[in-house]
């Protein structure tokens, strides 16, 4: 067809399966196994449907922005809110990576990065993780058009110490460095304290993992006010009303329940520790995880075989047919009860 000559062609991001079958054990998309904070249900019950006939407020002027600012001890002018961290990161790519030089990110990392780079026609280079799946800061000291990496990394779960993160930021003062902290609440140290020192640092977090609200789609970035202004300029040039009224109100309720948030993170970390012991006892090896998942490879049984046999038993984990990681499974940490079902299935598969 003639019109196809003008189509912007990219290879899209491939998300984990979202089966709707009842009774499955879903450990493939890093959702929290726990319900949102109790205040979320109250906020939902208290929603005023009359408000939905009006456009939502701009996120920076909402209770959600105020709650985040109070929680992180920064100004509301240092916060950018979007429809999940994917929306925030996409806007950041579009806003800050506007150079002839390549953007740098790891070769094993969140697989949306190269998709956004292709969509926005941004040149990029992947920097290889070492044999232990560690980022090498020296690889990010070359001239470039920007830097982005998750910490902890995905899908490996490996955490980079804060001094190494700062090493990368300090070596790239003339470009924006994005630290994607979707999993930071499961045992990592955030780079957030560095935003007062480095005006080129953008820290991105999400409600989808540690706040149990993947279905609500809320993400946010924190950085120097000028970075946030540039992000808003681009956002409001594309779509001014991306955040809906319900998400803005419900998100604020989630942020205010700090005790529940902390308790859920702690439960997931405790279950992760037990899971590491159980998996090791069944012949798996894995890097130390600081995320809500474990990136595991069996010593003798191919990952694809385990993936398919688990699926036959209605247990979903994540597997990629990609170089360097095609013999690994990413296993989300579920409840203790869900993990027990996984262990029993692995006993049958791994013998």
Outline:
This protein has 351 residues and is an alpha/beta fold. The protein has ten helices and 13 strands. It has helices at 38-45, 63-72, 84-96, 113-119, 162-170, 225-238, 245-256, 258-281, 303-312, 336-350, and strands at residues 25-26, 79-82, 103-106, 124-127, 146-150, 177-180, 201-206, 219-223, 284-285, 293-298, 315-316, 318-319, 329-332.
Describe this structure in words.
This protein has 351 residues and is of the alpha/beta class. The protein has 10 helices and 13 strands. The chain has helices at residues 38-45, 63-72, 84-96, 113-119, 162-170, 225-238, 245-256, 258-281, 303-312, 336-350, and strands at residues 25-26, 79-82, 103-106, 124-127, 146-150, 177-180, 201-206, 219-223, 284-285, 293-298, 315-316, 318-319, 329-332. A 7-stranded mixed sheet has the order 2-8-7-6-5-3-4, with helices on both faces. Strands 9-10-13-12 form a 4-stranded antiparallel sheet, covered by helices on one side. Strands 1-11 form a two-stranded parallel sheet. The longest helix has 24 residues, at 258-281. The chain is globular. The N and C termini lie far apart (54 Å). The mean pLDDT is 96.
């Amino acid at each position: 067809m003639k019109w196809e000559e003008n189509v912007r062609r990219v290879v899209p991001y491939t998300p984990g399966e979202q089966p709707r079958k009842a009774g499955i054990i879903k450990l493939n998309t890093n959702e929290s196994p726990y319900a949102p904070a109790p205040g979320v249900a109250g906020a939902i019950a208290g929603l005023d449907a009359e408000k939905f006939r009006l456009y939502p407020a701009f996120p920076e002027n909402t209770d959600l922005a105020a709650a985040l600012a109070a929680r992180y001890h920064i100004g509301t002018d240092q916060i950018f809110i979007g429809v999940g961290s994917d929306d925030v990161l996409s806007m950041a790519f579009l806003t800050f990576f506007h150079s002839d030089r390549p953007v740098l990110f790891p070769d094993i990392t969140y697989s949306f990065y190269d998709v956004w780079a292709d969509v926005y026609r941004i040149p990029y280079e992947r920097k290889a993780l070492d044999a232990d799946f560690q980022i090498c800061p020296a690889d990010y000291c070359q001239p470039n058009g920007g830097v982005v990496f998750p910490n902890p990394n995905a899908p490996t779960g490996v955490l980079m110490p804060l001094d190494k993160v700062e090493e990368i930021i300090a070596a790239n003062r003339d470009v924006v460095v994005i630290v994607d902290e979707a999993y930071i609440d499961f045992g990592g140290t955030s780079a957030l304290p560095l935003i007062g020192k480095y005006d080129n640092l953008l820290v991105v977090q999400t409600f989808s993992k540690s706040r149990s609200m993947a279905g609500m789609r809320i993400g946010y970035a924190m950085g120097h006010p000028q970075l946030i202004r540039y992000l808003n300029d681009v956002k409001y040039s594309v779509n001014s009303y991306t955040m809906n009224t319900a998400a803005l109100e419900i998100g604020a309720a989630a942020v205010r329940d700090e005790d529940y948030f902390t308790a859920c993170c702690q439960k997931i970390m405790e279950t992760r520790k037990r899971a590491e012991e159980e998996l090791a006892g069944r012949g798996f090896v894995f890097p130390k995880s600081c995320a809500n998942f474990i990136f595991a490879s069996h010593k003798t049984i191919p990952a694809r075989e385990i993936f398919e046999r688990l699926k036959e038993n209605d247990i979903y984990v994540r597997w990629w047919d990609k170089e360097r990681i095609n013999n690994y499974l990413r296993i989300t940490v579920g409840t203790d009860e869900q993990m027990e079902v996984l262990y029993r299935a692995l006993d049958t598969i791994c013998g």
